[in-house]
Amino acid sequence: MSNPAPPQDERSRIAELARATATNAPIESAKEPSLSEALHGYLERLRGGDIGSLPAILGLLVLVVGFSILRPETFPTASNLSNLMVQASAIIVLAMGLVFVLLLGDIDLSAGVAGGAGAGVMAVLMNRYEVNWVIAVLLALVVGVLIGLTIGLLVAVVGIPSFVVTLALFLALQGAVLLLIGEGGSVPVRNEVIVAIANRNVPVPLGWALAGVACVAYALVSLIGWQRKRARDLSRDNFVVLLTRVLVISALILAVTGLLSQNRARTTAVVLAGVPYSVPMIAVLLVVMTFVLARTRYGRYVYAVGGNAEAARRAGISVRRIRMSVFMIGSSLAVVSGIIGASRLQSVAPSAGGGNTLLLGVGAAVIGGTSLFGGKGKVSNAVIGGLVIATIQNGLGLLGQPQNVNFLVTGAVLLLAATVDALSRRRRASAAI
Amino acid sequence: MTNSTDTPPTPVDPEAPALLSMRGVDKSFGAVQVLHGVDVDVLPGQVTALVGDNGAGKSTLVKCVAGIYTTDAGEYLFEGSSVHVTSPKDTSRLGIEVVYQDLALCDNLDIVQNMFLGRELRNGIVLDESAMEEQARQTLASLSVRTVRSVRQLVSSLSGGQRQTVAIAKAVLWNSKVVLLDEPTAALGVAQTRQVLDLVRRLADNGLGVLLISHNLNDVFEVADTITALYLGRVAATVRTRDVTSSQVVELITAGRSGDLGLAPATASASA
User: Fold this and answer.
1) H-helix or E-strand containing B23?
2) Counting C-beta atoms within 10 Å of the first and last residue's C-beta, which end of chain A has fewer, N or C?
3) Measured between alpha carbons, how far is residue B9 from residues A1, A67, A186, A251, B18 in Å?
4) Which sign, positive or negative, has the C-alpha torsion A277, A280, A286, A292?
5) What angle do CA B227, B232, B237 make, to 5 degrees?
6) Distance from CA of A216 to the nearest CA of B (A)
7) Measured between alpha carbons, how far is B232 from B234 in angstroms, rounded to an integer?
8) pTM of full prediction above 0.90
9) Are A391 and A57 spatial neighbours (Cβ–Cβ below 8 Å)?
10) Closest approach of A278 to chain B, Cα-based (Å)
11) What average pLDDT does this structure show over A348-372?
12) ipTM for the complex?
């Protein structure tokens, strides 16, 4: 007996005290917050360690302004912007897959080389066996799914920590790609469609049309959803905040489209304009993956398992199946990223996806605001973080910095992002009473 | 609550219609028999407290009721008929919900998302957030919960008492008939304990059967209608709260008997 009953009078005194201190405010009746309440709530969340993509957005602004001042002739130009977008594409897609893995608090160190392996399979099939590109891409994706399945089985069923499994696969897959492509060689990628991803542009009118559709669709989905919530008197954003967000994002989409629609050819003989094909591809992936994470039961379960696996298990969620699925998504998106990389280089080397590829992907996800501790992150984090990484690489390249500086800076930025993540997590933990 | 020692304590009427009854439950782990012929009843509209010292078998009994452990012997009666319970899924199908000590909430999800975790409402493949928010709001209102500001708050921003409230509200969201609460006020402050005990009382007042596992006799005397005291894996006694004093319950817990209540002296000493 740890706590014998106190005498009656003390008990009633405690009860009295409790009644006096208990709050009696009713549950918020789902009123729309005023602008100042919305702002206050946001600041409160920031203070509580829920900073999301804010550091990445600020960092991106600083980088863009800084490089524009240092290299006004080359950095803020349409041709460089197009370059930067293509550079960022492979990183972003890799990071999108890693977001799923990181949401569970796991890591996939083999994602980069899994992408290389997928791209290698695709290139070899098209080049040596003259397989149709659709089938080659599908088979490459199957390779991705199988790699993810292998990792998932070893992590979720056998119970090996994910970093050990994927570290082993990081080596093994490099061996497999070397075997497939042959030492010292590389497989060219000549297929029109694959090469177009990173090297051709969407025709300018079509680019404008796509940008317009994206803006209108985003605005409609936001406004209709908000109106529906208001009709049923549910929690919702402040209308001004919502409208500002829609306008800012639409303006960004249109501004980038406008910049990329300018003719950026060096000579007058040809016209080079339009959004690179990889950009709408990323937009589609962003919408689909965000829908999966935010609006479906599967996505909810991914967050639940990442937040508290035991609670998820007790709620009847198959933690094992969710864990396997995120590795499968991670590796499949890594293959897509590998294909974008192959398109950019128009070949696949045995070292594809090795080196710092994975580090950049993880860096992009974490810089964008996805937590290494699981349970917190969005697909859009990968886009913002990928742009930050690509801007650093692109800008340092324009400044003529050697590779060692590039490595040092990128490593430092990743460490900085991980530090911010760890500190804000501590803040979140202490924010709860 | 009257702590009268003048009237002799009376055992609970065995004829009262119970929602859930365990009869003669035995449970062993290897050579160690943890439960010996335990009887426990949960009545509708009443709070039944399960008390006992560490190792008395409270947790084991709760896990048997929850379907996590299967019993070696004994009968599991639900609404008067014998049922076969082999997994937690069986019990939640019957309408028995368990609120565990360590809460089982996801910090990174909000209150609505936690309350519907594993049983999300959907519109096609899309989560029906509006319906879930409305139902969560109604459930909290029906329990007169006034301590949370917004149902879209993340659980990580809630206090211990508010978390416990969400965990309990989650359990009653599904029209459950019996709620098992494992040490709901452990690690809570005075005001928060008050909130949770009020909520426990309201659950019973809404007609649910509540089985409250607690170490804290204050809490037990505050909300329980009947008390079942376990002593070394046996039921020492099941008594009405108003018929006993806390010192009698302490004796039941520590010695297995108190006056003419509890185990026969021979049994009590044999168990020890």
Assistant:
1) strand B20-29
2) C
3) 22, 85, 90, 78, 21
4) negative
5) 30
6) 21
7) 6
8) no
9) no
10) 28
11) 90
12) 0.83
Segments of A76-227 assigned E as strands: 187-188
At residue B257, what is the residue type? R
Look at residue B2 in the predicted model and tell me its pLDDT: 43
Query: What DSSP element (H or E) covers B22?
Result: strand B20-29
Q: Are B146 and A26 inside 8 Å of each other by CB?
A: yes
Report the gap between the CA of B17 and the closest CA in chain A (Å).
30
Does pLDDT of B1 surpass 50?
no
CB-CB under 8 Å, B158 with A432: yes
pLDDT at residue B8 in the model:
45
Highest mean pLDDT among A194-203, B153-162, B182-191: A194-203
CA A34 to chain centre: 31
How many Å apart are CA A105 and CA B84, to the nearest integer?
38
> Do the Cβ atoms of A18 and B120 come within 8 Å?
no
In DSSP notation, A203-261 reads -HHHHHHHHHHHHHHHHHHHHHHHHHHHHTT-----HHHHHHHHHHHHHHHHHHHHHHT
Q: Are B185 and B221 in contact (CB under 8 A)?
A: no
Q: Which residue of A has its CA nearest to B139?
A: A27
* Mean pLDDT value of segment B17-25: 86
Q: In this predicted structure, what is the pLDDT of residue B205?
A: 87
Give the model's pLDDT for residue A394: 92
Quote helix, strand, coil % in chain A, to nearest 5. Answer: 75, 0, 25
In chain B, the domains with their CATH numbers are 1-95+178-190+208-272 (3.40.50.300)
CA atoms within 13 A on the CB side of B99: 29
Residues in a beta bridge with A187: A348
Q: How far apart are CA B173 and CA B196, in angstroms?
A: 16
Contacts of A295 in chain B (CB under 8 A): 126-127
Q: Which residues from A are below 8 Å from B117, CB to CB?
A: 300, 304, 311-312, 315, 317
| Chain B residues near residue A432 by CB distance under 8 angstroms | 107, 156-159
Which residues lie closer than 8 Å to A58 by C-beta, 6 or more apart?
none
Structure tokens at B151: 């149902």
Is the distance from CB of B217 to CB of B184 less than 8 angstroms?
Answer: no
B225–chain A nearest CA distance, Å: 17
Would you call A15 and B194 a contact, using CB atoms and an 8 Å cutoff?
yes
The answer to whether B61 and B25 are in contact (CB under 8 A) is yes
pLDDT band at A289 (very low <50, low <70, confident <90, very high): very high
Label residues B18-49 b or e (16+ Cβ within 10 Å = b). Answer: bbbbbeebbbeeeeeebbbebbbbbbbebbbb
Cβ-defined contact of B250 to A310 (cutoff 8 Å): no
The neighbour count for residue A351, using CB atoms within 10 Å, is: 15
Q: Does A235 touch chain B (CB under 8 A)?
A: yes
Where helices occur in chain B by DSSP H, the ranges are: 58-66, 88-94, 111-115, 129-142, 160-172, 190-205, 217-223, 246-255, 265-271
Look at the block and give the residue holding tokens 């489209």: A257
Sign of CA dihedral A31, A32, A37, A38: positive
Q: Note whether A308 contacts B120, CB cutoff 8 Å.
A: no
Write the single-letter amino acid at A254: L
**pLDDT grade for B233, boundaries at 50, 70 and 90:** confident
Answer yes or no: are the C-beta atoms of B221 and B1 closer than 8 Å: yes
